[in-house]
Amino acid sequence: MAKMSLDDLRKLRNETQQQIKKRETDDKIAQIIVGMGTCGIAAGAKLTLDAFVKELDGKNMGGDVIIRQTGCMGLCQNEPTVEVVMADMPNIIYGRVDAKVAKDIVEKHLLKKELLNDQIIDRPAGDILKK
d(Cα 105, Cα 16) in Å, to the nearest integer? Predict the structure, then answer.
């Protein structure tokens, strides 16, 4: 094995710290939960997950949002499905989430706190939403 320089070790430490920060749940502004059951994977959920990681990293938000995977959400006809959980907003499940929709979720839902009404497949009833 080749010896590592001090700069190489510092770079490795920084990369590892960034990966650890992404996994921590404290002080996150939101959670993105991607349905990764067999139905979701068959419909492209892995590409959707990768699109979220790429988009969040591109906006330097990788440490601010936690991305999780879950099994089937029971909404197979709308796969890939993604639930977004943010404080001061209702929990929303978006359906048919591809790379473009993932980008819209980051830009509109996470940054501007706007819902993507055309992609919503599940949310709380209107009478419990606070306006």
Answer: 27
